[in-house]
Amino acid sequence: MKRTSLALEPQTPTGKQPFRFKSGFWQQFLAFGSLIVLLIVFSLASENFFQFSNIVGILLSTAVTGVLALGATFVIITGGIDLSVGTVMTLSAVMTGVSISFWGTPIWVGLLVGILTGALCGCVSGYAVSKLNIPPFIATLAMMMIAKGLALVISGTKPVYFTDAKGFTDISLGSLLGDIFPGFTIPNAVLIFFAAAIIGSLLLTRTLIGRYNFAIGSNEEATRLSGVNVGFWKIVIYTIAGVFTGIAGILIASRLNSAQPALGQGYELEAIAAVVIGGTSLSGGKGTIVGTVIGALIMSVLTNGLRILSVPQEWQTVVVGFVIFLAVYADMLRRKKAA
Amino acid sequence: MKKSLRAWSTASLLLAGVLALSACGSNNNGNGGNNGGAASPEASKPAASNPAASGEKLYIPIISKGFQHQFWQAVKIGAEKAAAELNVEITFEGPETEEQVDKQLEMLQVALDKKPDAIGFAALDSKAALPYLEKAKSSNIPVIAFDSGVDSDIPVTTASTDNRAASALAADKMAELIGGSGEIAVVAHDQTSRTGVDRREGFVKQIEEKYPDIKIVDIQYSGDHLKATDLTKAILQAHPNLKGIFGTNEGAAIGVLNGVAESKMDGKVVVIGFDSGKAQLDAIRSGKMAGAITQNPIGIGYETVKAAVAAIKGETVEKNIDTGFYWYDKNNIDDEQIKAVLYE
């Protein structure tokens, strides 16, 4: 262990370190700045926008895709991609439903089953990518279909309801904060999102997992040559992403009080968009959790604001598309400058 | 199970091949006079009489618009019921989403290649399907359209709900429930599909023509439960005086319901839904949803297969089979007639 971390050091030369930090900082600043600008513009455009209930609504609508995006950040930093997060989320939701509503387990067991389902799918994707050498795009595409099919098969193509599990919707919609500070009713889903973000951020910046994650993304071959078991760590990283996906599955199931087996496809693209807007590079080796959180918030502020202004939905999609263009272009410009 | 299915299909394929050959001669006459259109039941006679004679079960593939959605599962139940009663073999398949026009056409192509006795088809895009329907016509395979019509006279009949009339009824109920004036909104499940367009327009037109004091302030689209929830909240945020929302299918309606509940507007906003499903039925029983329009999906499936068999036998079939729709709320939800068409 000691040897590997020693061997890793020349791989991230100290001379380059401040540079990377700086560019990450600017990307975040840019993203954060755009978020503030959006908030101001929408607040001026409609008096109905900047209200406590609406801000809470925006945060709540960010929770599911946000948690998905957290997991996706890990994978994207390795230089990979995970297309399966949308349908694996659905499969996790369905498994939670099967556990609670069909097997009659206590809620906490159901949650565990959901998270484990996500982790298992992530683990399989990771194995396919690292040991079977299937490109991440293809491996996770396959997993996307497998999860989608399984969700339908297991649920019998019917939604699984949680009507008998009292308190299940409170996981998303209850408000612990509101119980403690009356009036400050921020739904639990938002707290879970932020807690997951903090944990994700710690994992990425303070642990070996995070260090190897960046190393693999910057230069996989060099990391391997320096003695790191790249295959193993990749599986770990995909599994972590799977855990986040499982949590998202629980959040969506709890919010809808049901596991909808046909839902989920398309969510992976929203998650990836949030990650990219947040400044994580699709070529790997660079990215932050804070950026992803801001990216996810930008997406939902944008859709919410445009909806409140009653902009036709067709145009909402066009605008979001342009924002992704701009975000990636800004990122490229900056990197060119840095290089 | 699989083996026997393969054996069946191989057998029917062979048989159909022989039939096609033998039918060629007799068909030439038929095709000459076929341009008028209405002759398809007659033209299908030769292909049909043979399997019956040889004791083979008639084979009728049904290509639906989907299979995951509860609604299509109910259509399937109806189709299977008719198949059992009439002793015919059916298959039921459909693409994953209602945007996958291409996938549906592939399924149609495969079904046609199996040389079935008739085909049940719910077109996602009726214009795109035309070449395939022409092909069916030239091979004397009667086509039964269901759920939504096809812009062509090839289908022998169309078994469907009059979605415009159904949504107009929803509009009348909405007007009644909000007292004839105020702001309302629509959450439609889809911008482009025929049912999406018909339900939206049927509702909007009825409100505009009959209720000048009611204003539709917003129309947004999503049949995805979660997205419909978020957009309903945004609509309520933008229009605090909103009195009612109409959700045009199960996903949209449940989204509206969730959005209203999360915005703590329960009881202040009249919610009207479409179709059924457990969540919607529960909401109507508890009064959170004022009521909904239900189609008769089981009837659609049943009538489709029944009409297909009739067409194969060369009986005359009505050009349109209206499978009906009903308004239901907590007062009549347990009536026999309503109960029969609802699904969980």
Average residue pLDDT of chain A: 87
Biggest β-sheet description of chain A: 2 strands, antiparallel
Number of helices of chain A: 15
- CATH secondary-structure class of the largest domain in chain B: Alpha Beta
The average pLDDT value of chain B, as a whole number, equals 83
Approximate strand percentage of chain A: under 5%
Could you give a short account of the major beta sheet of chain B? 6 strands, parallel
Number of helices of chain B: 13
What Rg of chain A, in angstroms, do the CA atoms define? 20 Å
Morphology of chain A: globular
* Structural class based on helices, strands and sheet pairing of chain A: mainly alpha
What share of the residues of chain B lie within helices? 40-55%
**CATH homology superfamily name of the largest domain in chain B:** Response regulator
- Any idea what the radius of gyration of chain B is? 22 Å
Domain Periplasmic binding protein (chain B): 62-315
Main location (chain B): other
Keywords (chain B): Signal
Family (chain B): Belongs to the bacterial solute-binding protein 2 family.
Describe, in short, the structure shown:
The complex is a heterodimer of chains A (about 350) and B (about 350). Chain A is mainly α and about 350 residues long.
Give structural attributes:
heterodimer, A: 339 residues, mainly alpha, ABC transporter involved in vitamin B12 uptake, BtuC, globular, B: 344 residues, alpha/beta, Rossmann fold, 2 domains, 6-stranded parallel beta sheet, 6-stranded mixed beta sheet, 51% helix, transmembrane transporter activity (chain A), ABC transporter permease (chain A), transmembrane (chain A), cell membrane (chain A)
Topology:
The complex is a heterodimer of chains A (339) and B (344).
Chain A: H1 2-8, H2 17-45, H3 52-77, H4 85-102, H5 107-130, H6 136-155, E1 160-161, H7 170-173, H8 176-180, H9 188-206, H10 208-218, H11 220-225, H12 230-256, E2 258-259, H13 267-277, H14 289-308, H15 313-338
Antiparallel strand pairs in A: 1-2
Helix pairs in contact in A: 2-14, 2-15, 3-9, 3-10, 3-12, 3-13, 3-14, 4-5, 4-6, 4-12, 5-6, 5-12, 9-10, 10-12, 13-14, 14-15
Chain B: H1 2-32, H2 40-43, H3 45-54, E1 59-63, H4 70-86, E2 89-93, H5 101-113, E3 119-121, H6 126-138, E4 143-147, E5 157-160, H7 163-178, E6 182-188, H8 194-210, E7 214-221, H9 225-238, E8 242-247, H10 250-262, E9 270-274, H11 278-286, E10 291-295, H12 297-312, E11 320-322, E12 325-328, H13 336-339
Parallel strand pairs in B: 1-2, 1-3, 3-4, 4-5, 5-11, 6-7, 6-8, 8-9, 9-10
Antiparallel strand pairs in B: 10-12
Helix pairs in contact in B: 1-3, 4-12, 5-6, 7-8, 9-10
